[in-house]
Amino acid sequence: MSRVILVVEDEPKLASLLADYLRASSFEAHCLEDGTEVVPWVREHRPELILLDLMLPGRDGMEICTDIRTFSTVPIIMVTARIEEIDRLLGLEIGADDYICKPFSPREVIARVRAVLRRTQPGQTSETGGIVLDEYRWRASLGGRDLGLTAVEFKLLQFLMANPGRIYRRQQLMDKIYPDERIVSERTIDSHIKKLRRKIESANPGVSLIHAVYSVGYKFEPG
After folding, report:
1. Does residue 130 sit in the same domain as residue 115?
2. In percent, how much of the chain has pLDDT > 90?
3. Helix (H) and strand (E) counts in the chain
4. Which residue segment(s) compose the domain that 51 sits in?
5. Model pTM score
6. CA-based R_g, the chain, Å
7. Can you give the CATH number for the domain in which 49 is found?
8. 16-20, 46-50, 62-66, 93-97: lowest mean pLDDT where?
9. How far apart are CA 13 and CA 150, in angstroms?
């Protein structure tokens, strides 16, 4: 069964070119050009990955990405021609998994798609400290309550939970979460950790499973 890649691009020639390359690489491609159509389509069809342009008619790509992250951890690769957006994309605070700058080679896009899919390949279900990780659906729950994590938050929590009690420096966490060596600051990791802790405590007030170790980093401690 072919894996469906959603191409959201309002330049018909570019969208067609990307679709042709994806199909030649054994993917099934579906193209949309209107930003208002994306979220309903994703809810109904559940693609394996989304190539999402920033500049779209109807809705902005960042707004779409943020909206999708409220209900799905589908991998998203942002596509941009706006240099001023790069700093924001580097941090990927909106929940994207990668970004590509225009102009680009279609072969580079295929390589990025394959790399992101390898990183986000689903696996099994695991439980530590009351948190259940469903790697098949990319969902984390505590006490039966879905934590609503973004893809980046899920990967970060998964990494910390793999070795309970072990202290990880921020640089180690950055290397794990951003293996393609993009430049991000330690504040990005702090921001992700802050959101993770808030979501965990919201699901179970009084429970603090991720701990900061002063001047060192963070650890997952189930108690």
Report:
1. no
2. 29
3. 8, 12
4. 3-119
5. 0.56
6. 18
7. 3.40.50.2300
8. 93-97
9. 32
